[in-house]
Amino acid sequence: MSSATMTPEHATQTEASLNPLQTAVAKMRDFFERHGSADNPSPFSRLVSGFDLSAFEADLLALAAAAELDVDVCDLCAAMQGDTRLRYPTFGLAMSSLANAHWSAVQPRGPLRRWLLLDVGPADTLTSAPLRIDEAVLHYLMGTGTIDERLDSLLETLTPPAALPESYRVYSEALLALWRDEEEATPVVVVHGNSARDKRRIAAAACAAAGLRLRFLAAARIPRTAPERTTLIRLLSRDSVLNNCGLMIDCESADPAEQEGVRFVTDRFPGVVIVAGEARLQPAARGVVSLTIDRPGPAEQCALWRYASRRKSRTSERRAKPAGRAVLSRSGKHSRYGPPHRAEHL
Q1: pLDDT-derived band of residue 320, with 50, 70 and 90 as boundaries?
Q2: What global pTM score does this model have?
Q3: CB burial class (10 A; 0-12, 13-18, 19+) of residue 345?
């Protein structure tokens, strides 16, 4: 649980007890929390919890958002800094005006900068640098979040299928059971089989059942340089938290350099990861599980085709039948997983 847990009192403190900047921040947080509840937290609360922001870091993010949404806050920043040109928040202003300030909030490895929640502009000193909330983060907080434009050209979002053959549902359920049973970091799942399309359908169905979107990344699109890869990991990780996403990487025909890129991503991405193809992975921290998918038989394929035809014409629906069990292999050993439960937290 984050140290910046939302409370109604945060935004309803009397203005007499706050300086003008703290008052502006309280109003901004109240604005973000207006539709949130304990059962359905606001995007702001989910972001604070997901990135474990401190109270000061949460206030700093709210201040940067307020400067984008309210011109009066820009005027206030200029007035409090004694310069009409400084119509933006800075670390120095926040450190001197907001409660519970701490220097670690400005460090590159702190969550605000590490996960690209705030952009730090150029300046002579760090404390005088202009702060801006990242555009994708602001859209998320306003309830209109979409994929970051830096990821948009790299990723595809896979749509879960309307139906799966019975023999495919067992694989989807096996993935769910695996994610459910893991108490620590979920292992990387390497999916083998003849049909690239079917691997994607099974993975998308499993993620949808777990309440996840599934992003799809081709190995060839992973950058070659370490700084670019680090930025990619941070954007993917942020997307995973903000938009509740898993990641599937296609390395069906990856060359050695692309395989190295796949290893870089799977070693560092903290969420659910599925790799399609012959991946040579050694993620020591989370382990690897292999899943081999066999294509459905002719009768099942015909039944699925008939179902798709009926669904298209909206004349009938196919009833799902109980699925069997799938076998996953971890380090040469086989384990069987029973019926899945809904994944609570991945």
Answers
A1: very low
A2: 0.77
A3: exposed
